Amino acid sequence: MGKTYLCKSLEESLSFKHYSASQLIKSLKDDQSVSIDKRVANIDGNQQLLLTAISEYIKPDVTAVLDGHFCLLNNKKKIEHIPVEIFSCISPISLIVLHDSIENIGNRISGRDGVRYDYELLTTFQEKEIEYSQYIAQHLHIPSGPCQQVYNDLVVDEMHKIHHEVNETYGSPRMAVELRKRGYSRCENTVARLMQAQGIRAKMDKRYKPRQWQKGSKIAKKNLLAAMPLPPRPHEVWVADFTYTCHRGQFVYFSTIMDLCTRQIVGEDISKTRDAELIVRTFRKARRKYPETRPKIFHSDRGIEYANYKVGKMLEKQSIEQSMSGKGNCYDNAHMESFFHTYKSEMYYTEKFDDLEDFKIKTKQYLRFYNKKRLHSSLRYMSPADYAKSKA
């Protein structure tokens, strides 16, 4: 919802007269042209015209809604505050500050004016307008309550929604990024303070202890990832591993394959047995899910399941090079180890399962969340799915 829409709604429902600051200024200007990208060459001169127009068109005893900004973009594309003296002369009885997600703001401006702004500029502009409006309200002693607290209350409400949506997995860094995406501008320190005051905290539990190299491998391959950078495009390198879970005294094995570029989990399987068949099933599921793509490299640790001839022949048949971590060094496959730590901390250790089927259902639900919604710090705080789209 834009400010023009809100002002027109107030005009209709409360019989307030609505005026646009830009239209009032334009009514007194000799030059009626307006910069298409909304830059203002003479901010001070325009504000003096606004005061003149208000005195001519708005009677002192009339309650009106004035639609405008607290900051403007000058002709050098720098953000400038409108002088506080202008607001003192206008003598508002209340301030209303609208905020929205940066994506919505950008789309609205693009559709209306045909101009596309950098999202970083829009984010900074919205933050400065919110901060400066708070200063103006305090300076004018407007009896509308503390703006900071009102805004923080809105932020806290949104934080509770996010906390529920992400299954209580976000700490303050990801929470701050998600809030900013939704149009709520608060720094990480403020978000951390508000989360602590509200008792909002991310799930964390026992650390996953990675499995060490096992003897008995039938084949061994070199570590092809050791001397190469991270792949620049999706589906060039897939990394694989599995972890164990315990249900009613019985081990259950969770096998996954991750695309190293996007961190998406592209294949998964759950089984009561750990063998080469588990690896083959996981790989085939990934290939069925992405039939148009084929990785150049398939990397794993040196576990006997991956070193089985059956796995090697399957990869060789599809012209995929097999790569393995160094002997005794499970941290060569650190991205998979990191995923399992996250999975166990955020889901496995914090959930209760009725039976194996319930465990499978909740694991699939978590994977959908992990791939499509969970913000990843190494992906510029994007979800794996969104990052994959940016690389398409």
Helix/strand/pairing category:
alpha/beta
> Separation of termini?
31 Å
- Percent in helix: 40-55%
Order of helices and strands: HEHHEEEHHHHHHEEEHEHEHHH
What's the count of strands? 9
Number of domains: 3
User: β content, as a range?
Assistant: 5-15%
- Can you tell me the residue ranges where pLDDT is under 50 for at least 5 consecutive residues? 206-217
CATH classification class of the largest domain: Alpha Beta
Query: What do we call the CATH topology of the largest domain?
Result: Nucleotidyltransferase, domain 5
Q: How many whole angstroms does the radius of gyration measure? A: 28 Å
**Rounded average pLDDT:** 84
How does this structure look, described?
The chain is an alpha/beta fold. It folds into three domains: 3-140, Rossmann fold (3-Layer(aba) Sandwich), CATH 3.40.50; 150-198; 237-390, Ribonuclease H-like superfamily/Ribonuclease H (Nucleotidyltransferase, domain 5, 2-Layer Sandwich). It has 14 helices and nine strands. The protein has helices spanning 3-14, 21-28, 43-57, 84-90, 102-113, 119-140, 147-165, 172-181, 188-198, 276-289, 309-317, 334-346, 356-372, 384-390, and strands spanning 17-20, 64-67, 71-73, 79-81, 237-247, 250-259, 265-271, 297-300, 321-324. The strands form three sheets. The chain has a five-stranded mixed β-sheet, with helices on both faces. A two-stranded parallel ribbon has the order 1-2. It has a two-stranded antiparallel sheet with strand order 3-4. The longest helix has 22 residues, at 119-140. Mean pLDDT is 84; it is low at 206-217.
